[in-house]
Amino acid sequence: MKVHVSKRARRQIEKIHTWWVEHRPAARALFLDELAAADRLLRVTPELGLVYCEQKTGTVRRLLLPKTHHHLYYRYRADLEEVTILCVWGAPKGHTPAL
Asked: Does the reported pTM lie above 0.85?
């Protein structure tokens, strides 16, 4: 299974990681550790996330990173054996991202 990260998601990951390192010194690696665990899960069980919405380009799913309270929004293409991370969004924000 291939996992791709969109440019948007890559920027969000960098920003969240920077914030986490600065504001959570006791758990600086927690966000990246959860992200790596999610990557491993999605490679084995790509349909794990809850269906978030349907788009012309396919079904968007959402997976919670429970310790850091972020959601991964992603699309799984079974025909290509491919997962694309579209967005990483803080669950406590009170609203959802524009996809």
From this structure: yes
